[in-house]
Amino acid sequence: MRLVRDWRLIAAGLACLVVGCGDDGDVTTITSTAEVPATTTSTAEPAGGGAAPAPVGDGEGGVRLEQLGSFDQPLFVTQPRSGDDHLFVVEQCGVIQRLPIDGGGASPFLDLSDLVTCGGEQGLLSVAFDPLYERSGLLYVNYTDLDGNSRTVEYRRSAADRTVADPESARELLTIEDFASNHNGGLLLFGPEGELYLGMGDGGGAGDPERTAQDPESPLGKLLRIDRERPGTYEVAALGLRNPWRYSFDSRTGDLWIGDVGQSELEEIDAASQDQLRAGRPLNYGWSAFEGTETYNSDQRAPGALEPILVYGRDRGCSVTGGHVVRDPQLRSLQGRYLYGDYCEGELRSFSADPSRPADDDVALGLRVEQLSSFGEDVSGRIYAVSLAGAVYRLAPDG
Fold first, then answer.
1. Which of 88, 192, 260, 350 is the most buried (most CB within 10 A)?
2. Domain 38-397 classified CATH 3.40.50.720?
3. Is this model's pTM higher than 0.85 or not?
4. pLDDT digit string (tens) for 220-269?
């Protein structure tokens, strides 16, 4: 079993705590007592309390990073499609912050800290707003509860104050029992057809010990469609996932893109067209019969498994962070390219987004984000990058 060395040892340890990198036995053991650093408070003031730091250029005149604010262990950023012109930042220990679209002081929107197990890979993992949020006021969160299980819960915007959610309005949609603390996935997104999706890891441990990923009866290791009208009901959209640490739908085509964290050797990016996603049978991404393109568990079968679009090794990082196909017209150099990164390596990279063929033009942007925990997209198509160390950035044209 390969150990991560030098600077990667520290970074990989933190990544295992948050996004479930491979070599669960060795690396996680080394770092199991570590705490993820909370380098800033959750007041979401720009660093230094004044204007945000000067943007960092990509060295090629194409893209830069603008810091909008600093938070307490942020894991995700999003914006409702309607009904609010703010961004919403998810903090791991249970608070959702409401942030002005151009940065500045944020305010708490929903505090679930008393319900959430926070630490390692557990916590408040995402929020998704109803596509008709302006009218319905509905939003959905996924978090690790005090028993270590995954909960997807509906909340409603406060009738008295549109700037906050009503914590008493909780309606549980789905609880998934889990046997380990890692590989939780936990990202909720609304798909192009308006259905609510949830990405779930294989339950944790090393090497898919419970063989959940290829088990059609288990919700673990899957991409699920949740029936909001019938709590506890879902269907499997895809299986064969180890830990889908951030997936997305192309805002123009509806195609699916997934960053799936590897075990000990390979990280992978998976994809499917919207037609494949809606074909009526679950997609299969191969884990744990395969890790990336290599055979892994010989007792597992994954008939018809889709090949990864991109695979890379541990010489380039330890835990992939899936991103978005860029549709922001201001980012001309990234138009139609899939943007992604790696928690440990931190370098932002992109390739031409075509779910029908392997990536053959993968390049680095020349930008790095420390402890890259997530990407996000707003209603205008602008792209954001989130650092677990605290910063939330927006990608902007350089010059």
1. 260
2. no
3. yes
4. 999 999 999 999 999 999 999 999 999 999 999 999 999 999 999 999 99
> Tokens standing for 67?
């810091």
Sheet strands side by side (includes 372-377)? 56-57, 63-70, 391-397, 383-387, 372-377
Output the pLDDT for position 399: 74
